[in-house]
Amino acid sequence: MNPKDARTLHNRGYARSKNGQFDRAIADYDQAINLDPGYAQAFTNRGRSYLEKHDYDRALADLRQAVKLDPKDRLSLVALAAACDHQGQYDCALNAYDQALESNPDDLDSLLGRGSAYVSLEQYDPAMRDFDKVLRLRPNDADAFAARGRANALRRRVPEAMADYDQALKIKPDDPVALVNRGLLYIDLRLFDMAIRDYDRVLRANPRELKALDNRGAAWLSKGNPDRAIEDFNSAIGLDPKDAFALLSRGMAYVVKGEFDRGMKDIDEAVELKPGDEKMRTVRDRTRAKGRQTFPQKQ
């Protein structure tokens, strides 16, 4: 291999990333970009490797540069949308999916992703239109049923949500997306044991499923068992130290246990990771105000 060949370095990096060797892949992409700073595909794939490492700041920077260099590349736009979503930048994710759909309005994966971005922005009507279109064109899409189920659940349409989850699981038994989302609905309905059973099913198949760990922890916390909750949040944070939800929730669990300062440290770190998340800031401010009354500091 000619070490000065940017394409060859990129291709070796891509092969390494496919084998899960993300640090070595990134080193190859670094060299390729140094040789050819306009190499959009190298920025895209380095950004995707950073995504796999949960390094969302670097992923965003690379993927934005990739889109700047090649504004119509679908792979770059979809990866950018994923990075934005992880950072809680749902408008950014929505814009990326819109760009991807400009050149192919029937790109079903982008429609599904855009629908989920709409749900995160609480814009349920356009989300439902995207999910319905996916299901018209791909009637056996378990992920689309699971995503539509989540939208129905958030709109408090419980029977419709359950029907969507049941259909998703009929198509794809033990589908992690459907089980994770149905578990969320069970939590909303205060059926914590049923939620935990769904998350147990997911985690038996894949102990590294972050959303299942996060949400099972939330179910344990809501059930009044902060110690079991902290176990799940510790596992999630071990897999992704920048899991803001797990940090926020672990902080709340510590507060429930009476460890106010330890809890606020986690909560503050979560807000630092997602400074634009208004809900997290509200939780932090209310917890701090309540904690000053409940856990007065020694003078």
SSE blueprint and pairings:
Layout: H1 6-18, H2 22-35, H3 40-52, H4 56-69, H5 74-86, H6 90-103, H7 108-120, H8 124-137, H9 142-154, H10 158-171, H11 176-188, H12 192-205, H13 210-222, H14 226-239, H15 244-256, H16 260-273, H17 278-294
Helix pairs in contact: 1-2, 1-3, 2-3, 3-4, 3-5, 4-5, 5-6, 6-7, 7-8, 7-9, 8-9, 9-10, 9-11, 10-11, 11-12, 11-13, 12-13, 13-14, 13-15, 14-15, 15-16, 16-17
Description:
With 299 residues, the protein is mainly α. The protein has a domain at 217-294: Serine Threonine Protein Phosphatase 5, Tetratricopeptide repeat, CATH 1.25.40.10. The protein is 78% helix and 0% strand. The protein is built from 17 helices and no strands. The protein has helices at 6-18, 22-35, 40-52, 56-69, 74-86, 90-103, 108-120, 124-137, 142-154, 158-171, 176-188, 192-205, 210-222, 226-239, 244-256, 260-273, 278-294. Helix 7 (108-120) runs parallel beside helix 9 and helix 15 runs antiparallel to helix 16 (260-273). The protein is globular and about 60 Å long. Mean pLDDT is 92; it is low at 293-299.
Offer a few descriptive terms.
single chain; 299 residues; mainly alpha; Serine Threonine Protein Phosphatase 5, Tetratricopeptide repeat; 78% helix; disordered C terminus
